[in-house]
């Protein structure tokens, strides 16, 4: 109830939550109390959690930040929600996000922009900006987000919290509204690496209802926390510290690296030569997959349907024209274009080849180091409205986050300091496949 009171007081200014339902929250809290009384409580029983509005949750509106799903109440739980429910976590509400997770500033939501709790003039980052703002403002102790091209790490960085995008396939995508299926991955957002590790213990695991879910033995993501860093080889990619990185973000990252060196880490320079190509490759592949995934919103089965229309084709057209916002329409147009006959080879196939090169770059780098460090974004949070009329400018700000998703690697953001304007700056830690526990320990050293 402390958190509910804070949401009541602060959410009107932050707009971090789309839906809060006090009666449902209290009912879940009673179930947690009963488990405690019965002696069946686990470590996280009764811990409140906020869910990005992209995870289907039975009985709750699951809008995905879109007018298209404004009236959609999910009849079932996403796998991660099911796992959190079983662990006894209590739903505080559903957090705001860029429409269908497309964006880097949370300005693309049908429910309005989210404000950054550190500075209400700043964007919180996106697309999981509601979850990041909620944790940063202590409206929730932990939250779930999703990351297709940076949407957990970038808002975590801009809001001064910790967030981790696991290796692709570690967390089930079942019941998570699809944006770009080969890139999407859910993950924890919290104040600390330790809290992220505890939550990852709950949500990770095989799920037969997601065909890309990996069948692996369960692991304890807290197991390396507190271990010494002596001998850890930290790679700094030359391309991440070149033109385009603002000097104050560079200063914060350099002092974080110096800190780790003091703790015994060994620093090596590595190279990720195809970094620049991650932007065009991602902005071909993600819209291509999105255009296919979003074809299901046709006004027939669920979601928005235009009130007046002629024939069936007219119904589809009006429904989609009314239901989708402008960024989503832009992505659908780009996606259908790059997949169309005659252009497929020139764009989509090329992008897939670049994707393979980027994955290869990382493997070459990991032959020389254990983790890669760098910035999450070129600058600290920019102002609301600053880039919203220039999509390309917005896409360029994703330069340090996209390649990780193209390669399917785990990566996280941990608070590392502040920019000259006082806004938070996160350090990005990128690991090889399944190196989550090691990365969480590196992040833990800052806390
Ligand atoms: N900013 C990127 C995009 O708009 C990434 C978003 C995400 O990770 N969901 O596609």
TrEMBL record:
The UniProt entry, under InterPro entries, shows:
Amidase, Amidase_CS, Amidase_dom, AS_sf, GatA
Q: What is a single Pfam family found in this protein's UniProt entry?
A: Amidase
Is the keyword Protease assigned to this protein? no
**What Enzyme Commission number(s) appear in the record?**
6.3.5.7
Q: Where does the source fall among the domains of life?
A: Bacteria
Which reaction(s) does the protein catalyse, per the Swiss-Prot or TrEMBL entry?
L-glutamyl-tRNA(Gln) + L-glutamine + ATP + H2O = L-glutaminyl-tRNA(Gln) + L-glutamate + ADP + phosphate + H(+)
* Location of the Amidase domain: 1-440
Q: What class of enzyme is it?
A: ligase
Enumerate the UniProt keywords alphabetically: ATP-binding, Ligase, Nucleotide-binding, Protein biosynthesis
The active site lies at 52 (charge relay system), 127 (charge relay system), 151 (acyl-ester intermediate)
Q: What does the function comment of this entry state?
A: Allows the formation of correctly charged Gln-tRNA(Gln) through the transamidation of misacylated Glu-tRNA(Gln) in organisms which lack glutaminyl-tRNA synthetase. The reaction takes place in the presence of glutamine and ATP through an activated gamma-phospho-Glu-tRNA(Gln).
Matching entries from PANTHER family are given as: GLUTAMYL-TRNA(GLN) AMIDOTRANSFERASE SUBUNIT A, TRANSAMIDASE
Q: Which NCBIfam families match?
A: gatA
Q: What subunit structure does UniProt give?
A: Heterotrimer of A, B and C subunits.
Recorded family membership? Belongs to the amidase family. GatA subfamily.
**Protein name (database record):** Glutamyl-tRNA(Gln) amidotransferase subunit A
In its UniProt entry, the species of origin is given as Crenobacter cavernae
Identify the gene encoding this protein.
Answer: gatA
């Amino acid at each position: 109830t402390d958190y509910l009171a804070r949401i009541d007081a602060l959410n009107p200014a932050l707009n971090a939550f789309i839906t809060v339902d006090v009666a449902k929250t209290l009912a879940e809290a009673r179930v947690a109390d009963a488990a405690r009384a019965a002696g069946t409580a686990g470590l996280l029983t009764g811990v409140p959690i906020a869910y990005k509005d992209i995870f289907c949750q039975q009985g709750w509106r699951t809008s995905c930040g879109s007018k298209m799903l404004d009236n959609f109440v999910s009849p079932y739980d996403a796998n991660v929600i099911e796992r959190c429910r079983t662990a006894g976590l209590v739903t505080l509400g559903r957090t705001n996000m860029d429409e269908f997770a497309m964006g880097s500033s949370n300005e693309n939501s049908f429910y309005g922009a989210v404000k950054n709790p550190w500075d209400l003039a700043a964007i919180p980052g996106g697309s999981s900006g509601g979850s990041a703002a909620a944790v940063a403002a202590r409206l929730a102790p932990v939250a779930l987000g999703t990351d297709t091209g940076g949407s957990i790490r970038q808002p975590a960085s801009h809001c001064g919290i910790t967030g981790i995008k696991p290796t692709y396939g570690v967390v089930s995508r079942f019941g998570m509204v699809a944006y770009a299926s080969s890139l999407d991955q859910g993950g924890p957002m919290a104040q600390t690496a330790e809290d992220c590790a505890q939550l990852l213990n709950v949500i990770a695991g095989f799920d037969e209802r997601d065909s890309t879910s990996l069948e692996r033995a369960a692991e304890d993501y807290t197991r390396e926390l507190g271990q010494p860093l002596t001998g850890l080889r930290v790679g700094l990619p030359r391309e991440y510290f070149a033109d385009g990185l603002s000097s104050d973000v560079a200063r914060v990252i350099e002092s974080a690296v110096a800190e780790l060196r003091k703790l015994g880490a060994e620093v090596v320079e590595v190279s990720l030569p195809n970094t620049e190509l991650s932007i065009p490759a991602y902005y071909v592949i993600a819209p291509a997959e999105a255009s296919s995934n979003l074809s299901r919103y046709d006004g027939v089965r669920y979601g928005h349907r235009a009130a007046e229309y002629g024939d069936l084709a007219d119904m589809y057209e009006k429904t989609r024209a009314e239901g989708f916002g402008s960024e989503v329409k832009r992505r659908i147009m780009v996606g259908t274009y790059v997949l169309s006959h005659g252009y497929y080879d020139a764009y989509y196939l090329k992008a897939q080849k670049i994707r393979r090169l980027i994955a290869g770059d990382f493997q070459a780098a990991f032959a020389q180091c254990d983790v890669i460090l760098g910035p999450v974004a070129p600058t600290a949070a920019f102002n609301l409205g600053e880039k919203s009329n220039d999509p390309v400018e917005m896409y360029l700000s994703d330069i340090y986050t996209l390649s990780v998703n193209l390669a399917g690697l785990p990566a996280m953001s941990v608070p590392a300091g502040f920019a000259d304007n006082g806004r938070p700056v996160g350090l990005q830690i990128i690991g090889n496949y399944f190196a989550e526990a090691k990365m969480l320990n590196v992040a833990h050293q800052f806390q």
